[in-house]
Amino acid sequence: MIIAPSLLAANAGRLAAEARRAHRAGADWLHVDIMDGHFVPNLTFGPAIVAEVRRATRLPLDVHLMCSRPATLLEPFRQAGATHLTVHVELGDRVAALLWKIRALGAGVGLAVNPPTPIAAVRPFLGHLDLLLVMTVNPGFGGQTFIEEAVPKVQQAAAWRTELGLSYRIEVDGGINFDTAAECAGAGADTFVSGTTLFGHTNLASAIRRLRRTVERHAPDRRPASRSHETCPGPLPEPRVELARVQPARARRGPRRNQPPPRTAQVLHHRQLEPR
After folding, report:
1. Is the distance from CB of 147 to CB of 210 less than 8 angstroms?
2. What angle do CA 6, 8, 10 make, to 5 degrees?
3. Catalytic pick from 28, 130, 173, 190?
């Protein structure tokens, strides 16, 4: 199990010190949210900030690009010290080229899916991923309420991983506290991004230990994958996603463990992006 405190919830005036504190507290990764003010309505960090964090710690830096035009940002963030680079499946026909570029840069390849987007959109790319990020809030701001509809997506991603014999990590991000982390772990998640729950705790090391114990206790047994995604041949296909009317996602009302995947896919929230 990977515990990845999110720097979005850290003290923005002393990020290097916060990174060192997370390292000493027992974090496995640091999660860094990059927002461009267009794909999501917020602005956060640039490559220079990531470079400062990299100088402060040897922890892997899990860089999540919530950006409309990430192609020009991949190399700067990789050079700044990003270990993993994650882009969004909502970018449509640009996804395949972005994943290949991340692999060519030598970084871990990540793909994220937003709450209103059908999990089926990521399936064509699974064999080429190191990390599948299932967003459990609508991205853009920290401290949001966990969206319950994301749990069946985690279950489906875990089922595909077993069915296809792959070994990508399943990461959850958004509203992850001790209760929601347990629910996601039971569904098959193995990588947990948490901001407010961890950095908002007076004793960060204690919070990380508690979160780790919680997810390990609720995780299902899983055998190692029989083959590696890194050896999958052939070109990356493009997702075929139908557009539909957006249905608002419901906020979490209570725990529903072991919820089976829905028979029908969720609808896709399609953001109109500027042409290249």
Report:
1. no
2. 80
3. 173
pLDDT band at 275 (very low <50, low <70, confident <90, very high): very low
* Catalytic position from the list 33, 62, 130, 190: 33
3-state secondary structure of 45: coil
Residue 221 makes CB contacts below 8 A (sequence gap 6+) with none
Query: φ, ψ for residue 173 (rounded to 5)?
Result: -150, 125
pTM for the structure as a whole:
0.81
173 sits in which H/E element: strand 169-173
243 pLDDT above the threshold of 50: no
Q: Is 173 an active-site residue? A: yes
Domains of the chain with bracketed CATH: 2-231 (3.20.20.70)
The yes-or-no answer on residue 221 being catalytic is no
pLDDT tens by residue, 227-237: 333 333 344 55
Q: Pairing between strand 84-88 and 61-66? A: parallel
Amino acid at 234: G
